[in-house]
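Continuing the series of single-chain predictions for the mutant panel. This is the parent chain; the variants come on the following pages.
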Amino acid sequence: MNNNLVISVDAMGGDKSPRVVIEGLAIAIKKNPDARFILFGDEAKVKPILEQYPDLSKVCELRHTSEMVRNEDKPSQVIRNRNTSMYMAIDAVKKGEAQAIVSAGNTGALMAISKLVLKTITKIHRPAIVSIMPHRTGKYVMLDLGANTECSAINLAEFSLMGDILARNALGIEKPRIALLNIGAEEMKGKEEIRQAAQLIKNSKMNIDFRGYIEPHEIPNGVADVIVSDGFTGNIALKSTEGTARLVIRMVKDAVKSSFWAKLGIPFMLGVILKIKKTMDPRLYNGAMFVGLNGLSVKSHGGTDALGFSVAVNNAISLVRQNFVTTIREEIEKVDLDELAQEAIYDVY
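Parent structure:
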């Protein structure tokens, strides 16, 4: 493939692969006609579905692999098998054949293989999982969402910088507001690592708009554009938010069906109901990125449909166009966080 915009795809990842993967790519190519794809998967299963989409077939290269990563596979097992569709798809990015990899497969396996193959950017201690979510007035970036259950002050400071870069590039926010997720807004609240991170960010030369701490209930109000957390806390916050969104949508549906008068009012409320549903539809925010690596790795929800998978692909393409990985590498090179860490620890005490 000679085209400069090439996305590597794990065609066998996800609960409904490869059909949802192919259908998702067919949607994505309409928005990105200049994109090309390398598909890794079982040719006997992928090719018949791909042939149903002639326009997509023209911009796809199918590479056969009979092995795949299953949902129950442990990361320690899959990193030793270089013949799976996931491993080969990631390796294509390392070799320079593609600029990003998208998979709906096992999250732990994708993270482990991505770190092993792509390696972490120099000066970044740990990569993070980041996603874009809706709030009352727009969207926000949140990281880490599960890659690191425990984080040091340096890790959180690096996440702040990477989140700032993503918000500027993906959301078009000129000066994103950065906040550390904490149990209170007071300066001495929270774990030691969070307080050290706050001092480190304030004292660093990072040109970011740091707003201090944010409590979980403030996130939907749009008071910050980037929410920074350790992976354990961030993952819980994300899943709580997703569960609440589904609850609200279900409650609205149940309320509409509850009485004759409620059903009678549907024509008058339809616009509002559809707007709420669209805003809270998790498919439209699909595609978590592993940031901090020498290559772009995007994780789609395993149970998503074609629309959701297309959103993950679109996100990957958008970040490739904006040279996201190169931008992070250049920005992190300007700051020596290790040197400032000792000062931050001293200031906390």
